[in-house]
Amino acid sequence: MGKMVYFFGEKGKESKPLLGGKGANLGEMTKIGLPVPPGFTISTQVCMDFLKEKKYPKGLEKEINSNIEKLEKRSKRKFGDERHPLLVSVRSGAPVSMPGMMDSILNLGLNNRTVKGIERESKNSRFAWDSYRRFIQMFGDVVLGVEHSKFEKILDKYKRGRNDTDLSTEELKKIVEEYKKIITSEGKRFPQDPREQLKMAIDAVFNSWNNKRARIYRKLHGIPEDVGTAVNIQVMVFGNLGWDSGTGVGFTRNPSTGENKPYGEYLMNAQGEDVVAGIRTPKGIEELRKDSPKVYQELMKVYEILDKHYRDMQDFEFTIEKGNLFTLQTRTGKRTAQAAVKIAVDMVKEKLIKKEEAIMRIEPEQIDQLLHKQLDPKEKERARVIAKGLPASPGAAVGIVCFSAERAEELAKKGKVILVRNETSPEDIQGMAVSQGILTARGGMTSHAAVVGRGMGKCCVVGCGDISIDEEKDMFTVRNLRIKEGDWITLDGGTGEVFIGKFKLVDPEMRGEFQILMNWADGIRKLGVRTNADTPKDSERAREFGSEGIGLARTEHMFFEGERIRTMREMIIADDSEGRRKALAKLLPMQKKDFIGIFKAMNGLPVTIRLLDPPLHEFLPKEDKEVRKMAREMRVKFKALKNKISSLAEFNPMLGFRGCRLGVVYPEITEMQTDAIIGAAIEVNRSGGEALPEIEIPVLSDVEEATFLRKIIEDAAKKLIEKNRVKVNYKVGTMIELPRACVTADKLSKEFDFFSFGTNDLTQTVYGFSRDDAGKFIPKYIEKGILETDPFQVIDRKGVGSLMKICVNLARKTNPRIEIGICGEHGGEKNSIEFCHLIGLDYVSCSPFRVPIARLAAAQAKIKNG
Ligand code: ADP
Ligand code: MG
Ligand code: MG
Question: What pTM does this model have?
């Protein structure tokens, strides 16, 4: 192995894979002249090597030692020295930020003798012993594996409800003794030799790569296992040196709203993670102006430098030691979707980044948050606010309360839950993931719950001091109210309000920066974006979200609603064409009405309507009881009906009598649906609107099916149009969902004006995976690494994708003007959208809520691939 250790400043932010995010950015900050305490980074390669070989690579100790010497020179201190001891922090830092996953150790180098040196040198006994007890606690927990709570218990005993800063030196000394006893009683040994401390701490950081929390986090976020963590060893600076010292966290812009204003929290006389851990309630950064005007000015400079230098919102750590400011970490800050959009758009206006970069910065999935629920303003007026906390992550959530992550996981299987905790910790992550929202009694805007909540895009209210939780009794009290497990509450993560009861949530609107970003995306993307919608209401919503038409309107449900199913059944059990026509005549006006609604909602935009697709037996009852009822209603014999139903039953309905096969066997169905579609278009056009129907034939495999059905459709349409003398611009096309259709696309395309890939069925038929049964084995395939992703979610480029490409090329060869889109689930998934862009489709179609996601993803595909 080559060089294993790098001094801060040797490398910068580009070396994240090697030095981890923390190390690379500490190097970068050193380079640009920010006040970073000196230190060095042991590379991630060393970590992976160590985990494999179970020992240090050759020469590592020597490199570490020479870097420690460098630190000794810079700080004019010596490791283990009794008069001027060098203290360091040992900090983990992986290439991908994994908040709270791997713990750092502060004040390393302290022992029974050096603590006295610190005491003499600082003339501050309280500080010396506070540092020592913190060190033993961190070392005991992280390195020796003594449960964190055992130390907390002792600390709480001494605090007796006071703040940690109220502890006297004598008390701190006693705590140190008790801490040591706990460690010994666990059969562990607290090493006094600083070199041994250091070695053990480094090992512990490396090993923490494989601890359970880290593994869960990696799994949840798709982070590979072989990345490894770096170790940073850095000279300590002390925020716990008195009331002119402190520690804090800064965000160069507001991580919740995106507002371009310094944001942050700090605590005086505190160390390390005190702010994040919610030891005391932190102060807002503005207050530092009063607490320490000089440091405040310096800090504002740091905010500006970081924001400009990184050209993105930074989340950084600082410590003030006796009025001197130090920066200890920076990284790109996690933010809500709302903030992400605002920051990206603002930074374009501030000329820090280009439009394209702004678009690339937004994770398409993330904007989902912006499209989700808010508390109904009308309901909100009458809702009773029982408490108010900090608005840590916006959106609203409704659910029943529960008080532990495990309960949340259990109860979430049955319904919506809200996790209520004093504060959350990494062990709670899965419980948080399944909850609708999170409410904590303690902690600030940068607490674990807040950071993770924002990351997950989950409604989150923190630091809600009004409530007091009784975990033993599974309840919380607020004023004189008792809220028990199972009671409903509603949270507003945008305001921090907590309401008692179950309130209605409503869908949000698109405006402001979001609208601007979407317009930029529209100006860039090549792919059109349509929506899959079956009702006027969904169509309207999709239009608000920027849909450019309907790519798939299914007609099935139109046959299920209320009275219609009866007529439909009449049609199915009819013995002859005449009987069927009679029933269909009754269905026609109902269908026509539906289509008029959709055409009006999508006025001037194309609407693709798919002809009836599912197997007929889906419309018929199965249980004898129901069959009897139906027989009575239809005035037919039970036995006869029963026979009819069993004659329709299929062994493999997915490959059975469905799709265009229905129309081939019963052309009157196709005729009636065409009448309804064209009839509706005529009516809309006559009243001044513009309907643009695209009639789509499902599950087609052969050109003879195409010519046969096309003729039926054309004849019916022509007849109606001529009779009414109203012009209708309509198209006829087919869904491409069978391999045979793909490879004969050159012939099919001559018959049609458009194709639309039905990639759900196409994936099913290409893989031979039944959509209804694949859930049983696909997760196992993914677990075993045989499939990378679920092909029903992300297009299988190699198989399904290849066929699509073949189809597109064949189709365009014989019909260059053919319009080709996609309407499967994949149409709203960013990786699949990129593929659609690459093979030159005209549009993607997805559910209304995914339309903005698709618009953004389509723009990203263009930017990424030109
Ligand atoms: P995490 O990855 O969990 O953020 P860090 O390594 O950043 O952990 O360290 C935890 C806390 O200790 C942070 O608040 C950090 O600022 C503080 N800290 C780390 N190193 C030092 C140091 N050399 N001097 C003072 N504080 C430090
Ligand atoms: Mg931490
Ligand atoms: Mg940190």
Answer: 0.81
